[in-house]
Amino acid sequence: MLDILTVVLPVFLVTGAGYLAAWRGLFAASAVDGLMIFTQKFAIPCLLFSGVASLDLGAEFDPALLVAYYTGSTVNFALGLLGARFLFGRPWPDCVAIGFVPLFANSVLLGLPITERAYGADALAANFAIISIHAAYCYLLGITTMEIVKSHGAGGLATVRLVLGAIFRNALMIGIALGFIVNLSGVAVPGILQEALDLMIRAALPAALFGLGGILYRYRPEGDLTIVAFICALALFAHPAIALALGSGPAGLSDAQLRSAVVTAAMAPGVNSYLFANMYGVARRVAATAVLAGTALSVISVTLWIAILP
């Protein structure tokens, strides 16, 4: 267990360093925003582009892998939504935003570096397959449900436009889409361009983790602790448990696929959870606190899941 903790802890120490720097005023809020713009709009899209462009789609884009992972995501969304309504008595729009929090795992900023440290860079292929539809699936489910709940007279076409706009304004999705185009077309990335991409890629995850710490500093814990605990239980334990049960059972995943599915499922809620709540102006305090609490608790939970895995 101690060996596993030494694999996981450095990722969170970098995030903690960013949190500490923001807390002590050594890293201004504007600097945090600039760093996150660099990582999320430039460096990480390069990482995802390169990862998807080099995927063996026939081998790695396995429907069984996606079913094992996204069944847990969908169950989490439903349980979060219904629990918020019938256990905590929240209004329906709040319930959708609360359900979105355990739906949207931090598959990139935490999932990629932890999987890489635990199993090596060659183990990331299944992660990229999961991530390739992550934002699209989560936003499609969340926005469609929210628009149905709100029912402000927007027709089906308006909802489709809203969903597509949220997905394709996302730089991560643009990087993934371009990666698929290169992969499917068989066009080789020129060597000089690939070297430039590699420089961006090497900066992506460490910078993003440090910036994530600065972002989390803004989300100070505030009330609603019972519902936050409920969300964290879904995100950190229910989702990976479902992925493990399906992956090692009916889905019949390989060890490498199972590791990627479970480790990605075990990640804390991503910052997009708060962005979704903020987009609709509902349950923002719950979403922000759950992102912060889940990230802190995942130091322990991820260590336990890695210990369980083959």
List keywords for this structure.
single chain, 310 residues, mainly alpha
How would you sum up this structure, described in words?
Helices cover 79% and strands 0% of the residues. The model has no long low-confidence stretch (mean pLDDT 89). Helix 2 packs across helix 11 (191-217). The protein is globular and about 55 Å long. The chain has a single domain (2-308), classed as Na+/H+ antiporter like fold (Up-down Bundle). It is mainly alpha-helical and 310 residues long. It contains 15 helices and no strands.
Number of individual domains: 1
Order of helices and strands: HHHHHHHHHHHHHHH
The coarse silhouette is: globular
What's the end-to-end separation, in Å?
14 Å
CATH architecture: Up-down Bundle
Low-confidence stretches: none
How are the SSEs placed, and which strands pair?
Elements lengths: L1 H22 L5 H25 L3 H4 L2 H24 L5 H12 L7 H9 L5 H7 L2 H17 L5 H13 L2 H15 L5 H27 L7 H24 L6 H11 L5 H10 L3 H25 L2
What's this, in brief?
This protein is an all-alpha fold. The chain has helices spanning 2-23, 29-53, 57-60, 63-86, 92-103, 111-119, 125-131, 134-150, 156-168, 171-185, 191-217, 225-248, 255-265, 271-280, 284-308.
